[in-house]
Known about the structure:
Elements: H1 15-28, E1 52-57, H2 63-67, E2 71-80, E3 86-95, E4 105-111, H3 133-141, E5 145-149, H4 165-182, E6 186-195, H5 197-212, E7 217-224, H6 232-239, H7 246-260, H8 273-276, H9 278-281, H10 292-298, H11 309-322, E8 333-338, H12 346-358, E9 363-368, H13 381-389
InterPro entries: AB_hydrolase_fold, Lipase_secreted
Transmembrane segments: 12-33
Protein name: Lipase family protein
Amino acid sequence: MKRPAGLTRPVTWSIAIILVLVVAVVVVLVVGLSTPDGTDNPARGGDTPGSVLSAKPMDDLPLLMKLGKVKGSVVQYVSTDSSGKRTRVSGTVFKPGGEAPAGGWPVVAVAHGTLGINTECGPSSSSDLHGLIGLAQGLLGAKYAVAIADYQGLGAAGVHPYLDSDTAGRNVIDSVRALRSVFDDISPRWGGFGSSQGGGAIWAADEDARTYAPELDLVGVVAGVPAADVVGLVAKARAGTLTRDQAPALQWIVEAAARSHPDIVRDDYRSGSAVTNWDVLSACAGPLVSRRNAAADALGPFDLAPRTDEAAARLTDLLRSYALPRKAISAPMYVLYGDADTYIDKAWTKAAVAKACALGDRLTISEQAGKGHGDIDLDNALPWLQSRFAGATSEQDC
């Protein structure tokens, strides 16, 4: 099935992950097949961020994970939204097979790109984690424990605050806490990787890590094509200059916002085909999703334009509250983006990076000529993160 139009296509570590997988296959074929136990010592209950509310062993792990004696679990855990309210969030956590190194398995938290705004859009609702299982396999083959948050409102019941990076970032941090509760021998040292929506989430997690989770040791994060600041979508909608890729993303922003913000009224932001196709455009699964790309193609240049100055101001203010940076990061960050991105304008990312540099952030920056949103070169991402775990100093490109 063709993936529905949204803010991102899945971004993967290509060559580096393939090499890791090849090595993993060679190694684990020696140890033979095993049936994984999904948890070691799950500590359930409590209301502090990261507390595990439920943990269900994954019995449908791919063959490579079974060969490697990987343990996997679908979890629900406590997290915190941007207002400080406790929430229930779901996700998946994994532990490599074999004996852990001294200090426990280091962790990579994966912050996924846009998959949708409805409950069924969370990675944990799919046996292949909506395409993320290969990335998880590669990281496990490289001997990292892996945590993949669904984000609030995806997977577990609730409203998903789409592109609220602060909330998603805390969901990511708390997925690491949940991983350490479910499995033994997990190190407090962790790194992060995210792309698009996940790029914004992992950036926000880096900003919050020092104060939100002082018991964990963040070594660095990779933020690919980060949705750091998309306030400019409102002005482009009013000017009729949204790209084909930006228009359906804006529809998801409006619909998600309307579910939790009474001042965001859907009819203030839709006309023409957006009215008749609204439910189709909101879908990520089920019978409507097959029509979503056609509905996105049918959008006219002003079908998602705010109808009044007041409506434009309300949506602008909301997106400003989501925008990054907000404060200095806790650990080095590697930012990668393309100068031909049709989802997130290059100028928006460059401005966010410049602000982060002004805050004193340590950034490795890769602006890639001719690359868009889903085809940036991420081959250096895993080696960069491995160097941070090894204690090497990262480049400062500010």
